[in-house]
């Protein structure tokens, strides 16, 4: 697992998931916000929203960006399928 994550510390927790994740990126890094703002209106609850894994996905995408300051904006339906304690540990490790 450590090799797959690069230099991101591997978690000691085991989390099993049997359904595929679908990471949806509503705005690419090189896109201006105004032309794509309509995409934000089309966000609706979906299944397989494992918040902790999506946060790790976003973190990995930002990791090698040249910008000094980085922001992750998270939208949630309030009903994550993942494990709440794993989500808390994930966020704490990334902070």
UniProtKB/TrEMBL annotation:
Residue stretches making up the Cobalamin biosynthesis protein CobT VWA domain: 18-88
Entry-linked InterPro entries: CobT_VWA_dom
Protein name: Cobalamin biosynthesis protein CobT VWA domain-containing protein
Provenance organism: Tectimicrobiota bacterium
Taxonomic classification: Bacteria, Pseudomonadati, Nitrospinota/Tectimicrobiota group, Candidatus Tectimicrobiota
